[in-house]
Amino acid sequence: SDGSIRLHQMTSEYPLMQWNDSTKGQPITALRWALTRPAVFFALDASSNIYIWDLLENDLLPVAKQTIPSEKVVTMTLLGEPEKANGLLGIVLAKESGQIDIQYVKKKWALP
């Protein structure tokens, strides 16, 4: 609810890493690991901002931020085929109106 993200290992109650205020205080409404690249995850905040984290490139801050200005995004999920090495990764956005958008991610954040 405060924009913090914690990375846990299943065998410990303490986080391996923690990023406080990663969304400048906006609640995180969805967080998903990339299906095709294990070091990448996406966070959606309550202001319809999508943050892309690539832990191999930068483990302190998101590597990109994209604002969806047209309408409030209520949730997101990812689509892709992890068993294929084509690097195709999409973000499915569900908007407040019920409209669904699919946006494809740049190859550098999708390739295995």
TrEMBL record:
<dbReference type="GO" id="GO:0005929">
    <property type="term" value="C:cilium"/>
</dbReference>
<dbReference type="GO" id="GO:0042073">
    <property type="term" value="P:intraciliary transport"/>
</dbReference>
<dbReference type="InterPro" id="IPR036322">
    <property type="entry name" value="WD40_repeat_dom_sf"/>
</dbReference>
<dbReference type="GO" id="GO:0045504">
    <property type="term" value="F:dynein heavy chain binding"/>
</dbReference>
<dbReference type="GO" id="GO:0005868">
    <property type="term" value="C:cytoplasmic dynein complex"/>
</dbReference>
<dbReference type="GO" id="GO:0045503">
    <property type="term" value="F:dynein light chain binding"/>
</dbReference>
<dbReference type="InterPro" id="IPR042505">
    <property type="entry name" value="DYNC2I1"/>
</dbReference>
<protein>
    <submittedName>
        <fullName>WDR60 protein</fullName>
    </submittedName>
</protein>
